[in-house]
Write a structure and sequence with these properties.
Layout lengths: L3 E13 L5 E13 L3 E5 L6 H8 L7 E6 L2 E2 L8 H6 L1 E4 L11 H10 L6 H13 L15 H13 L5 E5 L7 H16 L3 E6 L2 H6 L3 E6 L2 E5 L5
Parallel strand pairs: 3-8, 3-9, 6-7, 7-8
Antiparallel strand pairs: 1-2, 1-4, 4-5, 9-10
């Protein structure tokens, strides 16, 4: 389907343990995500949520099966194409990963410089991204001068400044108290309503129930759709 943005088809993935043995993470992952759709990925710590996201930005390749994101496919993509795939994605992490010696503006601009952008267009796009996440007033603040919620807003602005087709959020509220987590969740939902596809990995079932969307649970290495109301 042309509207399908992400497809995992019968994916198995493992990684090398300390003794060189292969440790299985998942044995039969199947998932589709449509353009502009919002999906939660839930499951306890260690269930493989971060691994699934790594499959999407192709930091990991599956042992079996196919991962497709846009027109990039895991069994066909050349190493030199992976940076271009990643430019079409925005990624938000739990631990922010901001450059400590640079302001919010500079952190976001850095994401544009990395793709070869320069000049006035960078300033305009960075200020637009800050405005979209409600952080225009903190453009010149450095990470140590910002609250956790402000740092995460800066991370989201950095992730969206290059207009990705898909935003991957890996436990984006995991280090935040419930009130601030709600504020960050509302930012993600706003971006989704503006047309961006969002895949959010979380173990905060309260958020999933409060802001329901299609929800996939990782259960024993497989993906199962669940009703948020039952969590």
């Amino acid at each position: 389907m042309e509207s399908t943005l992400v497809e995992l088809r019968n994916v198995a993935v493992s990684y090398a343990g300390h003794s060189g043995e292969r440790l299985k993470v998942a044995g039969d992952l199947s998932l589709t995500l449509e353009k502009g759709e919002m999906v939660y990925l839930i499951g306890p710590t260690g269930s493989g949520k971060s691994t699934l996201l790594k499959l999407l930005y192709m930091d990991l390749k599956p042992d079996f099966g196919i991962v497709r994101v846009g027109h990039y496919q895991s069994d066909r993509i050349a190493d030199k194409e992976i940076p271009y795939l990643r430019r079409s994605l925005g990624v938000v992490f739990q631990d922010f990963q901001l450059l400590s010696d640079r302001s919010a503006f500079e952190n976001i601009a850095f994401a544009m410089y990395a793709t070869g952008k320069r000049g006035r267009a960078v300033k305009e796009r960075v200020m637009q991204a800050l405005a979209r996440v409600g952080l225009s007033h903190r453009a010149h603040a450095k990470p140590h001068e910002m609250s956790g919620g402000e740092q995460q807003r800066a991370c989201i602005a950095r992730a969206i400044v290059n207009e990705p087709v898909l935003l991957l959020a890996d436990e984006p509220t995991g280090n935040l108290d419930p009130r601030v987590a709600d504020e960050i969740q509302k930012v993600l939902i706003k971006l989704h309503k503006e047309g961006m596809a969002v895949l959010m990995a979380t173990h905060d079932y309260r958020l999933v129930k409060e802001f329901p969307a299609r929800t996939m649970a990782l259960v024993k290495g497989r993906l199962v759709e669940v009703d948020p109301e039952t969590l």
